Amino acid sequence: MAYLTPPTGYLILVVYGLFMILITYFFARWKRYRSIQGFLVAERNVKWWLGATSIAASWIVGASLFIIAITTLSCLLMPRKTPWKALNKDNL
Q1: Rg for the chain, CA atoms, rounded
Q2: For residues 50 and 60, what is the distance between their CA atoms, to the nearest angstrom?
Q3: For the chain, which residues make up each domain, given as ranges?
Q4: Which of 20, 38, 41, 66 can pair with 33 through a Cys bridge, CB separation 3.0 to 4.6 Å?
Q5: Is the pLDDT of residue 32 over 70?
Q6: CB neighbour list of residue 71: distance below 8 Å, 6 or more residues apart
């Protein structure tokens, strides 16, 4: 049973893409971020909690990408085992 129908999935992707384009357009036109330094490092004026949140999100995404790669590789090497069993040392 599918959670989303294909048209609903495509609609979500299109809405997300348009949202990202609008955000990029907004920040590109905002006068505060017209310079290279302003765009890349926010004029070096970022609050500590915003910087900490960004670092934490980067760590989580980085770890998630490694876990996805390991799980995919394990499933390709051992196709009969489910991902959660493939990562168990006892099943190798």
Answers
A1: 20
A2: 15
A3: 1-45, 46-92
A4: 38
A5: no
A6: 83, 86, 87
In the numeric block, which tokens belong to residue 21? 């384009």
| pLDDT surpassing 90 at residue 25 | no
**DSSP letter for each residue of the chain:** --SS-HHHHHHHHHHHHHHHHHHHHHHHH-GGG-SHHHHHHGGG---HHHHHHHHHHHHHHHHHHHHHHHHHHHHHHSTTS-HHHHT-GGG-
CB 56 within 8 A of CB 50: no
> Could you report the per-residue pLDDT of 62-85, keeping only the tens digit for each?
888 888 888 888 777 766 665 555
Q: Across residues 4-9, what is the average pLDDT?
A: 88
